[in-house]
Give the backbone structure.
Amino acid sequence: MARFERPSDLLAEFKFRAVTALQRRVVNPLTRRLPTQTLLETTGRTSGLPRHTPLDGRRVGDTFWLVSEHGERSQYVRNIHADPRVRVRIKGTWHPGTAHLVPDDDPRTRLRSLPVINSAAVRVLGTRLLTVRVDLDAD
């Protein structure tokens, strides 16, 4: 096991592992099936296969905003690093686009403009918040 500088580091690691395990095994398989659930489709950096992540965010014009609760440790963020071309399913319709990580944006402020329930969950469960902007291709 890794060595931790502070007790808070150990707590953050425990929180990250617990949350990701619950999401991977229970929450994501269920919510992925809901027809109105917003999904982010990335390309697996190793497999090359499409990966669908249930999440929430907000479309503003031709831009979709979201906040990753685990930042660079999120699998979909790691996939975006490898290939920024993504698709976002919003209200049942897929929209292709290009994802950009926005580390200079304040994710806590950004969460105030996103859907309330998901934003509250991201604040509580998140360990390393990171804003992600998806520039959607023209329809």
